[in-house]
Amino acid sequence: MTEHSLPRATDLSQFPITQRWPAQHPDRIQLYSFPTPNGVKISIALEELGLPYEAHKVTLAESDVKSPEFESLNPNGKIPAIIDPGGPDGAPIGLFESGAILLYLADKTGQLIGTTARDRAVVTQWLMFQMGGVGPMFGQFGYFYAFGGKAIEDARPLERYLGEVRRLLGVLDGQLADRDWIAGDFSIADIAIGPWIRSLETGYGALKDIGWSDFPAVEAYRDRFVARPAVQRGLNVPARD
């Protein structure tokens, strides 16, 4: 092999985030995340797809997510974000927003998004259901039920978000009554929804007050989701400690 035919080392120096979180394997997808419901969507997808990646722990502290290095990749200052050294045009690409990253990875590999245009439309529909409904409403419920908002004496915010959580669980329970996965085959829509369902117990400890027994199809769905080996691996990436 001649000098000119040697493969070039991937150069990610154009991304300032790599100054604070250096890439040990710059030829792999770089994941900047923390194991929250939004964060583990991407580690689970990468595990399910079998894509090589390197995980960097970016905590939720402002010193991390609001740092100039992180905001150079995601100006919104939220995890997760990625750099793919093998972007669509052969050049590295940086992306943020978990739903956008899931779509990108599915399109990159041709997996987890169905095999037809109709499949893709249905999967995308349920992905947007999570992004626009499940994530924001479950997150606000968690804040008022288990975190800082629980000290607020006015019960109306918690009541509102509890009602929305139950309403959304009812939608999911109906959709899952006769199928294992939300859009037919296992897809990025399940990867988006599953961690938020799991968070109702593991993150908030709220199953009793939600009336969990009213949603048996969702309970079975959560168990199927968590039992997947790739999900088990992705749920703890990056490690908290």
From TrEMBL:
Keywords: Transferase. CDD domains: GST_C_Ure2p_like, GST_N_Ure2p_like. Residues 26-113 form the GST N-terminal domain. InterPro entries: Glutathione-S-Trfase_C-like (IPR010987), Glutathione-S-Trfase_C_sf (IPR036282), Glutathione_S-Trfase (IPR040079), Glutathione_S-Trfase_N (IPR004045), GST_C (IPR004046), Thioredoxin-like_sf (IPR036249). It holds the Pfam family GST_N_2. GO terms for molecular function: transferase activity. Residues 116-241 form the GST C-terminal domain. Transmembrane segments: none annotated. This is Glutathione S-transferase.
